[in-house]
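> tool_call: predict_assembly(chains=two)
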Amino acid sequence: MTTAHLNTEFEQIRGQLKSFILRITASVADAEDIVQDTYLKAAEKIDGFRGDSSLKTWLFTIASNLAKDNLRAKKRWTEDVTDICKTAAMSNQQFFQEAMHIRATSIQGDFEIKEHIAFCFTCIAKSLPLEQQICLLLKEVYDFKVSEIVQIIETTEAMVKYYLHTGRAKMINIFEGRCALINKEGTCHQCSELNGIFNPKQKFQEEAVKIDLVREAEKADKEHLFDLRMQILRGIDPFESGAAELQLHHLAHNRKVMESFLKKNEV
Amino acid sequence: MSATTSTGKALTTKTTFSRETAVSIEIQADASIVWSLLTNAADFARWNSTVVSIEGDIALGQTIQLKSILDPQRIFKLKVKEVEANKKLVWGDAMGNRVYTLIKDDQGHTVFSMAEKIGGLMFPLFARFIPPFDASFEQFAADLKKEAESIMQAN
């Protein structure tokens, strides 16, 4: 394996790697740093790469380890992250002013419901134990096989299966109890509320039913609804989409709010 | 005492000053999966229909607060007394200990056993107020087997 091979492969997966790390860390700066460090580390060790896994799996292994190091000392977010951040946003006029400015001026300032669904998953998945979050993303969003995830997170097949199963079960349970898109009793309507702010002329319900997850909400079982949610994530690059700047601004706000919340509530 | 076969059927032995219930069941899953299920407090109530909730960390020296369907109004404060990863877990209070053991068999499966002995000099005075554990133990073992095997069989 040569540096030229590495460069070619790295350029092909850079986007996936960056979105994967963003979804783990919820930080654009950390995602950029970790992707950069992944390349440097890979370039340094490329002579020792023996092809026991694909190069892509090897690069995701390096990136996952760097992300784990980055997050080791940080607390996990709480399941009610969207409530906490909403309360903070309501009393933060500057946040809305900035968001409206992005909405009005940026080519990546659209507000799209499916983008918010993906954003919402990123925030709530940070309440999972880190291994569960990483496994879930690798399998459900980045299409890695269990055997490849075993290599990436350096554990047994049994434990990967455990992380996947429990992570998935927990996320299904959270969304079923909260998300008004899939459950009439759901308490969280943030995507519709924000749509009303950013797209005041749009009829939310008409837009929402264009999304499979919403259209099938009443008839599909919760496992299938989760798969549809994952399909949305797979179809979105959080750095490249037409809603990227608005959603990344929102993510930066939530990260700041959660860091402060967790610090205040430190045991 | 231990359950003699791994059938999932509970056995209870009574003496004047104690009562012990045990159950054992073979689970076609890796011990690490069974262990993870047994030591993840926050996830317990999802798969275990005998438990209402467990709060705290199931880690050596920690105290957990357990609510059981046997008496949902009561919170059992239990200390985690022994932890040997993938092999043995003990928690309990002054009344007695709950001992979980995992043994790997030749086929890579796991024999799960659970036993609880309660007793002491005052036991005869309150024995009649303590409900039998047999049905709850059998349900616990069945739930654990079902969950661990469904994880193991997933792709």
